[in-house]
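tool_call: predict_structure(chain=1)
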Amino acid sequence: MTVMETDSWPMQAKCRGMQDDLFPDGADQKRARTICFGCEVRAECLAFGIMVRDQYGIYGGLPLRARRQVLKTAQEAGFRFDPDDPTAERRLARYIRENPEIVAAARERECKRRKTEQRNARQQRWRATTRSTGKAKAPAAATHTPPLQDTLF
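tool_result:
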């Protein structure tokens, strides 16, 4: 019997027993993604996170935006998603297992988005610092003074 044929996938998850860590904030998300990376039920967890539309936490190693991207990509590829269908979660998990490239693409896109956010935050902090202290301003344009010439009186 495979993981997909049972409803006990949470019992096989690496994060089992870490209830407080299921909904990490900030730096804890990286740790949660690391735990998810080697989990054998990652596809089922990701499908569950997409189905319940949870706004917080990491499911299958992906945060909310990346989970939305996985669903969008699957739908564009022809996956029919009906949240009221009792088999939708299993079908989605099977689709995710059969198409790991959509998860990889969503993870890469999320990584780029996170790096862009971090870069923008650094730039904003730098701008705020330079405005308030007046340091790091662009050098004033050098004025050219002509050489003094000897004048005869």
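agent: DSSP finds six helices and no strands in the chain. Proceeding to next step.
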